[in-house]
Amino acid sequence: MSAAVPTPPTPELHPDYSDPSADPTPWAAVVEAVQRAEIFWLTTVRRDGRPHVTPLPAIWLDGVLYFCTGAEEQKAVNLAAEDRCILTTGSDRFRSGLDVVVEGTAARVTEEPLLRRLADLWLEKLDWPWVVADGAFQHETGGAALVFGLTPHKVLAFSKGDPFAQTRFRFQER
User: Fold this and answer.
1) 108 contacts 69 by C-beta, under 8 angstroms
2) What is the pTM of this model?
3) What is the mean pLDDT of residues 65-78?
4) CATH code for position 158
């Protein structure tokens, strides 16, 4: 699950939605943005086709975005039926910042060494302590959270300001 992206993906600038003077956003800037972000918006699809969007923290590790949710929450129910989803992060500013949209498939993570590594990162980045047990995160006071890793298939980067740019990164299916 946490296999590193072997080489940075090639950026493709979308000229119809970019300033003529714009360059593609470098992959390193995208990675920095998702590593720095604390909140993402997760989009999943309900069985009847209606979208479901909710904010949650996520952690970027080795080319995968990891997030967690309770087994009975709508997002977990949706992912059990359809593993394709999107995580979005960025700013609420129109003329500055970088918005990033990560499209891909989410898979449940149950391997204890990876879960322990992720728990350490949650604590370091968000001051959110997790205990790893039974292939999931556990709250110290009880209650489990399933952990998922979103493997990117496509990433869109929207550079806002002067100049505006829309850059697409595609990944090979893993």
Assistant:
1) no
2) 0.92
3) 97
4) 2.30.110.10
